[in-house]
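Researcher: Can you fold this with NAP in place?
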Amino acid sequence: MEAVRNKQVLFRGFITAAPKETDMEFRVGTAELRIPEGFKGVLVKNLYLSCDPFLRSRMREFYNSYIPPFTPGSVVEGFGISRVVETNDEGFRPGDLVSGLTGWEEYTLITSTDRLRKIQVDEKIPLSHHLGLLGQSQLNHARMPGFTAYAGFYEVCSPKKGERVFVSAACGAVGQLVGQLAKLHGCYVVGSAGTKQKVDLLKNKFGFDDAFNYKEEPDLAGAMKRYFPDGIDIYFDNVGGATLDAALLNMRIRGRIAACGMISQHSLSFKEGIHNLYMLIPKRIRMEGFIQSDYLHLFPQFLDRIGDLYKEERIVYMEDTHQGLESAPATLAGLFSGENVGKQVVCVCRE
Ligand SMILES: NC(=O)c1ccc[n+]([C@@H]2O[C@H](COP(=O)([O-])OP(=O)(O)OC[C@H]3O[C@@H](n4cnc5c(N)ncnc54)[C@H](OP(=O)(O)O)[C@@H]3O)[C@@H](O)[C@H]2O)c1
């Protein structure tokens, strides 16, 4: 069998700061389009790859976590959408479209097929949206945005009509959907983001009631007070750090904080402390961390509801698509400087 070109992105070595393009290496190798003897699985052609904050957690030398680190020198692994080229696993056929953990390369041999999900194609929903809007994973460590927003908002935040909701990293893959779900639920919603362009999108495209640029607010607690003079009922926290600290000061009695992610802390060797935790007591605030895969039983319901809302044009979903595998390292690094506007996707091949 003739070997074909296989472009790849390798992880160079463990890091202690925010990821940089140079922490990964692009190379052109080869692949044989057949399953090697002795292996069971599927050989896939990768079409779209997802850039997610959790990949940073796999770049540190820390083994005592639910998520193992990458091996230096190996191909970066992340969530993707792929076409099955060859299979000796009876659960799949050549031509199937699947989503699941795959390599940052053109062709990947996947042996853990129990982690793959077959995609039911719907021509009204772009295929790449299965990484963002409709994204879910059966793995703890593949955290996908759409289902995260859905489970986090409805299950952790216990929202009620008319409540005041604050969302950070609001223009990102998770945040844009949380805000729209909250609006559909009848809530007042304000988002924070790091550029004027994102603030405009939040107000004009995603339908938030208001939004502000946290980078232009030296007094974050004061800014929140301006947007929530009567306090916040629900804070959907994607960033942690100073924003969480300021939100704690602005919560209402019996408010809820969904601790979804703390991207501001991902790249710090020593995490910042939170000073205002004492507010949990007089305000009787419930603060709860969650992982989307805790709620897998809700996934079929989520697919139907969010798919319908999208097709009925009651929600929108924005992607930031980068062309070619070569763009993947810079695209991942961009998540940590806020360069993405919406869900970060790398298109390896459109077919
Ligand atoms: N619990 C779960 O199951 C689960 C699942 C998926 C994701 N997550 C978490 O959810 C959060 C959002 O993920 P996502 O996929 O939607 O990412 P994203 O929001 O699309 O991208 C990350 C954004 O975070 C903001 N950011 C980066 N560094 C920051 C900092 N130091 N301080 C404040 N904001 C910063 C940037 O936007 P700005 O321009 O606004 O700065 C950046 O665009 C992450 O914390 C992630 O780890 C959790």
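Model: Folded with NAP in place. The pocket of NAP is lined by residues 52-54, 143, 145, 148, 169, 171-175, 193-195, 198, 238-239, 260-264, 290-292, 335-336, 338, 340 (CB under 6 Å).
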